[in-house]
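Extended Data, panel c. Modelled sequence:
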Amino acid sequence: MKIKLKFIVIIIFFLTIIISKSYSYTAHYKNFKKIEMDIYRNGELIGFSIYEFINNGNILEVINKTEFKVKVLGVKLFSINSIGKEKYENDQLIEFKSETLQNRKKKFVNLKFDQQLKIFKIVGSSYEGTANKNNIVGNWWNHKILTATSQISPLSGSVKQQEVTFISREIININGKNFEVDLFKLKSTDDNLEADKRLDFDIWYDSKNNIIVKVEYNRLGKWQYILKNIKKN
């Protein structure tokens, strides 16, 4: 009985993924105005990441502002101040721009979709070249990150291959509210990447509301992006 029940759960999960991919995923966000996430390091609130949505017919724009500071004994060790804008037309990313100040180092991305060649053309602080049109920008508002095979860094424009594995279905509590979620592991597939460049995230996804509610990873400490608030029209 337990084996049969587990099998049914797995089938339902994959049917959900297949069905969701058959519809415009940006349409899932047509009623969204804002997603706010708090950023924690080792349990301490250090910043925020906010996504604002502008819908205009078949055009969706997503503006992200992320800021955080890591201090030890009052001394700032690490900081990010970043703003980016994604633009989609008929479910296709057609433009992305970002500017980031990481500590005192400037990073940037300027991406455009070539309508004729059907590829992305990227000029970034760590990569200049082209990328397959199925790449996504690695931002946490977009649940398509769970079905993509590669992503583009929103800070520098680098392209990294990835694999996503379903781990379990759970109920987690965030700010006093229970969410029924699917837990995924997202990892780089390129073992030759330097350790601090590899993707290695745990992602909790609420499929009912099409939203990522929590992201966790370890890199010089335990980092968490946790859903704070959602605003809809």
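Residues 1-23 have pLDDT under 50 and may be disordered. This feature is highlighted in the accompanying rendering.
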